[in-house]
Amino acid sequence: MDLKVRKHIYFYGRVQGVGFRYYAVQKAGQLGLAGWVRNRYDGSVEMEVEGAETDIDQMILFLQNRTYIWIEDMRVKSMSLEGEYGFYEREDE
Fold this sequence. Notes:
Blueprint: E1 4-14, H1 20-31, E2 34-39, E3 45-52, H2 53-64, E4 70-79, E5 87-89
Parallel strand pairs: 2-5
Antiparallel strand pairs: 1-3, 1-4, 2-3
Helix pairs in contact: 1-2
């Protein structure tokens, strides 16, 4: 079993108004990931996600392969685990 990790990720590109948060919540639920996702005023999307690194990578790949989403760049930072459950959409920044 993979070790759990938590990552804080900023996604840049065509990531708002394209179902990004909806798909993130759906896929995170399928993969058993925890955390949240929200739009930022600068047009980026911010996410904190916790779970197996392979599952996090799988979710990011899933998002990259959606028709209208185009991830130009990502800033990823490792965080300490929070042990939360569930993945949800937060209020926009």
